[in-house]
Write a structure and sequence with these properties.
The complex is a heterodimer of chains A (304) and B (639).
Chain A (H helix, E strand, L loop, with lengths): L1 H49 L15 H18 L6 H20 L6 H19 L8 H29 L6 H18 L2 H4 L5 H22 L7 H18 L27 H19 L5
Chain B lengths: L2 H28 L3 E2 L11 H9 L3 H4 L20 H5 L6 H20 L18 H4 L1 E2 L12 H19 L9 H12 L13 H15 L7 H25 L2 H13 L1 H12 L3 H5 L9 H15 L6 H17 L15 H19 L11 H14 L1 H4 L9 H12 L2 H4 L4 H6 L4 H17 L1 H5 L10 H14 L8 H17 L1 H4 L11 H18 L8 H16 L2 H6 L3 H14 L8 H17 L8 H12 L1
Antiparallel strand pairs in B: 1-2
Helix pairs in contact in B: 1-7, 2-5, 8-9, 8-10, 9-10, 9-12, 10-11, 10-14, 11-14, 12-15, 14-15, 14-16, 15-17, 16-17, 16-19, 17-22, 19-22, 19-24, 22-25, 24-25, 24-27, 25-28, 27-28, 27-30, 28-31, 30-31, 31-32
Classes of the chains: A mainly alpha (304), B mainly alpha (639).
């Protein structure tokens, strides 16, 4: 008589265990989708960044290959369809939103179908949603993701200005007028200011802060390009401001490479990547960028 | 455990493990490295840079082919390569400039790899996106700030926790009568609260287990029940690991070293002492398994650990083990020693402050020049005395509103001061006194003083303006030190001086405001100093002049006690004639060696000095009488 009772009990327990496991399946599939989205995002970003790494690249290489754009699209799909509706945890949602914001930004940068504005808007919206959840940097986890939300508006702003500059050069085949340059560089300045918010929340050696500061430096470099393209005479004072800002940006946020207004950054350690005390790759990149900016500054008339 | 329970347990374990694996996977996914894209850039240098190059070092590239370079020279192959493009510059066309910038970039890249290239001096235009993949990998956390444990530990830790739950649920596991099983089960049960999956890996648990086994090996019978031993080990583990974590967070390697040494050298003693002490009153020391917050045992251990980290050189080896044992015993007598902190400190704040203050004072004394009589070697005994006295007098010695107030530490400070050259302005004093005292006698001085302070702390410690130098205790000790330093024949031994301290403290208790004047810090002006010195000087002078050697040891102490009592009864008389004590002593001792040698032995001297001194203090002219007239009546009265 005891065996059927025992069997019934075990069956009940087994069903309970199955039910408990079944409850895990939704979040698990959501997390697996997030994993896939991260893979796509990293693949796309690798290709996107490699465009700028090759000195022998043709100017046409500046356009992101369609495969990379597809991967950013895949990220957006995965996050919207398979991650956000399924994962329970807020920290995973924040991570997904960060991927979404940056992927939409990149889709906006590489949009050839007139949908750039829509993608940029999506990027801003995703970042705003994420930033609200981050509660102004007070969440314990997702430090990088919360930093990405803070950076998105500035990066989008710069992309819009840069697109305008490239349109003048590559589509209209002319140089910007002084008024156009002022408008574009003004927007770039605003982008640099937006990105600077990261420094109020994170310490200088936080990876996402270093990334943000490197973006500021890149934008300042782009600003010098725009200013130098004004013919016949560039705005010398504005150029000097750019050079000075770039130098102080590097000296205040990338201390390891030892740059100062009077001294070039020391990049000798950058070759020794295995050395634990060597500056980080982002610091080395910042130092190298500053060298290039200072080289440009050496060619134009000296600043007061 | 029956079959059904085992199956149920297995299902619960599987669910628990599955949930942990999911959590770990989610955490690791959240924190995966991301490669972030860069803001757009042309990837080219500004045209002014390229132009500067082609107008200077790279001139050959844009000159007409016929005039460019030297035959066979390094640039001859490329000479005039960009001549036609250069000639299109007046078109003011961005496409032309971009082509020239690209050309410049390529030439720079080639020359950077060629050691013989003539353009090396104009390098630096290499792309800054080297090693692309590594460059823009952005981690979720700054280095060293990721709070997560390694996934293997997190999952493995959960397996360990499940195994421990199984041990807890099945009393037959390690439930035999053998000593090893007893300690193993207790140890395993003590691990119940530990989060193996999420706490940093530490060898502490292994240390605890080894120490427990050693204790058991030394003591054949089990000391306390499994449950209480488990609770004890759990409390010791939690307290130690908490301190180790704090030390790690503080970034102070000395603290960590001190704790590791404690674990290596003392842990076994701590467990042994704890097991023996708490056996009879386990709930009193350990609370119940469900009780949260610090318990008495935790408090004592925490206080000791604090001391170990603060003064690792002083609190080490046997000393700290003995201090722990003494403190635990004292807390066993009176739980108020583990006092709820009123100022943000833990419950151990009273004990911890006591340890720290005593250690600091002894260490400061050792560093002084010349060093104090009371060396840091006495730390263990001084603290043991202090906790013992405090346990008996907690209401007086522990300030409920301010547990950091340490009356016995203040007392120690005044003892040290009383024997210090600072108070006496005599650098040779410690050397003179050091020959007199054994370690045991120094401890006896401390114990005698602490007991007196417990009776009347305010009178002995406060003094004028709360200055240590003008406190009664410092002046009393100073009086003894001064007098003893004027005892060339060493008539008082170390033990005698301890007894003298007892006499002086008792006399002071009877007449505190008359025997000392705390408006001065000059010990020599104190009446007590003058009385003791007068007696010692007179006795030493008697020996110097060939008098009979009758007054030593107990007799001398009785004589001093008698003199103090007489003066205490007529302080005004003494102030009027401060030399009266010397005169009386001189007369009696002289008589004992001469005209009254037959009548005066040591007892007779003691018996006659008191009455004569009292009369002389009232009327000094009494001393004008002859020795016989002065002493005979007193001897008759005494008989």
């Amino acid at each position: 008589m005891r065996r059927p009772i025992l069997r019934r009990r075990l069956r009940a327990v087994g069903l309970a265990a199955l039910a408990a496991c079944a409850g895990c399946m939704g979040p698990l599939t959501g997390t697996i989708a997030l994993h896939q989205a991260q893979d796509s995002f990293n693949d796309a970003s690798t290709v996107a960044n490699q465009r700028f790494a090759d000195a022998f690249a043709k100017p046409s290489d500046a356009v992101l290959p369609e495969t990379a754009v597809d991967k950013y699209r895949r990220v957006v799909e995965l996050v919207n369809d398979s991650v956000l509706p399924k994962v329970d945890r807020d920290d995973l949602k924040l991570n997904a939103l960060a991927l979404l914001a940056f992927s939409e930004w990149q889709l906006g940068v590489n949009a050839h179908d007139g949908r750039a504005t829509e993608h940029f808007k999506n990027a801003i919206n995703a970042a705003a949603t994420g930033e609200d959840r981050c509660d102004a940097g007070r969440v314990a986890t997702n430090r990088r993701d919360c930093g990405m939300f803070m950076l998105t508006p500035g990066l989008v702003k710069h992309s819009q200005a840069f697109a305008q500059y490239q349109e003048i050069l590559n589509v209209q085949h002319r140089f910007p007028t002084a008024a156009e340059a002022a408008q574009i560089t003004g927007q770039m300045r605003a982008a640099v200011a937006d990105l600077d918010k990261i420094n109020a929340t994170f310490p200088a050696d936080e990876p996402i802060a270093q990334y943000g500061n490197l973006q500021q430096l890149v934008i300042l470099d782009n600003e010098t390009h725009v200013l130098l393209d004004v013919r016949p005479t560039p705005d010398h004072a504005a150029l000097c401001t750019c050079f000075g800002d770039a130098t102080s940006l590097v000296t205040s946020h990338f201390k390891v490479i030892g740059a100062s207004p009077a001294k070039l950054p020391d990049l000798t350690q950058c070759a020794a990547a295995a050395d634990a005390n060597a500056p980080s790759p982002i610091e080395c990149a910042a130092g190298r960028k500053l060298q290039q900016i200072q080289q440009t500054a050496g060619v134009v008339a000296p600043c007061a | 455990m029956d079959y059904v329970q085992i199956v149920l347990f297995a299902i619960q374990a599987a669910i628990r493990l599955g949930q942990k694996i999911l959590t770990v996977f989610e955490d690791e996914t959240r924190d995966r490295d991301l490669i972030l894209p860069m803001a757009e850039t042309t990837g080219l240098p500004p045209f002014v840079v390229a132009k500067h190059f082609f107008e200077n070092d790279g001139k050959a590239f844009v000159q007409p082919p016929a005039t460019a370079g030297q035959p066979g020279g390094p640039v001859s192959v490329s000479a005039g390569l960009y001549f036609s493009l250069w000639n299109r510059l007046p078109e003011n066309n961005p496409d032309v400039e971009r082509e020239l910038c690209t050309a410049y970039l390529r030439i720079s890249a080639l020359s950077a790899d060629d050691p013989n290239a003539m353009f090396r001096s104009f390098g630096g235009s290499q792309p800054f996106y080297d090693h692309t993949n590594a460059l823009f990998v952005v981690k979720q956390w700054r280095d060293g700030t990721d709070p997560k444990r390694h996934p293997i530990q997190r999952i493995g830790g959960t397996v360990v926790e499940i195994a421990l739950d199984f041990v807890k649920a099945d009393p037959t596991l390690f439930g035999g009568a053998g000593a090893g099983e007893h300690i193993t089960r207790a140890f395993l049960l003590s691990l119940d609260d530990i989060d193996f999956a999420e706490t940093p890996p530490d060898e502490l648990l292994l240390d605890i287990f080894q120490a427990s086994l050693h204790v058991l090996r030394d003591q054949s019978g089990a000391l306390i029940s499994d449950e209480h031993l488990a609770l004890l080990l759990s409390r010791v583990t939690a307290t130690l690991s908490d301190d180790v974590k704090r030390a790690q967070d503080s970034g102070d390697p000395d603290k960590l070293r001190a704790l590791l040494r404690f674990r290596r050298e003392i842990l076994q003693d701590v467990i042994k002492t704890s097991a023996a002490t708490v056996a009879d009153q386990a709930s009193y020391f350990l609370g119940t398994p469900s009780s949260s917050g610090q318990q008495l045992l935790d408090g004592v251990l925490k206080a000791v650990l604090g001391a170990v980290q603060q003064e690792p050189d002083l609190f080490s080896g046997r000393a700290i083990a003995d201090i722990y044992a003494a403190s635990l015993n004292a807390v066993g007598q009176n739980a108020n020693l583990i006092f709820p902190g009123a100022h943000g400190g833990g419950r151990e704040v009273f004990l911890a402050t006591l340890f720290s203050r005593v250690a600091t004072q002894l260490a400061d004394g050792a560093r002084a020049t010349p060093p104090s009589l009371f060396s840091p070697d006495l730390l263990r005994d001084v603290i043991a005395t202090a906790v013992d006295v405090t346990a008996d007098n907690a209401a007086v010695l522990i300030n409920a509103n301010n547990p950091t107030k340490q009356l016995l530490a203040d007392a120690l400070q005044r003892i040290l001061l009383g024997f210090s050259p600072t108070l006496h302005q005599d650098q040779s004093l410690p050397a003179t006194l050091s020959t007199l005292f054994s370690r045991q006698q120094l401890n006896a001085i401390v114990a005698e003083t602490f007991a007196a302070v417990a009776n009347n702390p305010a009178a002995l410690l406060q003094g004028v303006g709360n200055e240590a130098q003008r406190s009664a205790l410092a002046q009393l000790i100073g009086a003894i030190a001064t007098a003893v330093s004027q005892d060339p024949h060493r008539l008082l031994t170390g033990d005698g001086i301890v007894q003298l301290l007892h006499i002086v403290l008792a006399a002071f208790a009877k007449n505190p405001d008359r025997l000392l004047d705390l408006n001065t810090s000059d010990v020599r002006q104190q009446i007590l100093t003058q009385v003791i010195s007068s007696v010692l000087t007179a006795v030493n002078k008697n020996l110097d002049s060939g008098g009979r050697d009758l007054v030593r040891g107990d007799v001398l102490l009785q004589l001093i006690e008698t003199a103090i009592a007489a003066v205490s009864g007529n302080v005004d008389g003494f102030r009027t004639a401060p030399d009266v004590v010397s005169m009386v002593l001189d007369r009696v001792l002289h008589a004992a060696s001469n005209v009254l040698a037959n009548e005066l032995d040591a007892a007779g001297i003691v018996a006659s000095v008191g009455p004569i001194l009292r009369k002389a203090l009232a009327d000094r002219t009494l001393l004008n009488a002859s020795d016989a007239d002065l002493i005979h009546p007193v001897l008759r009265d005494a008989a």
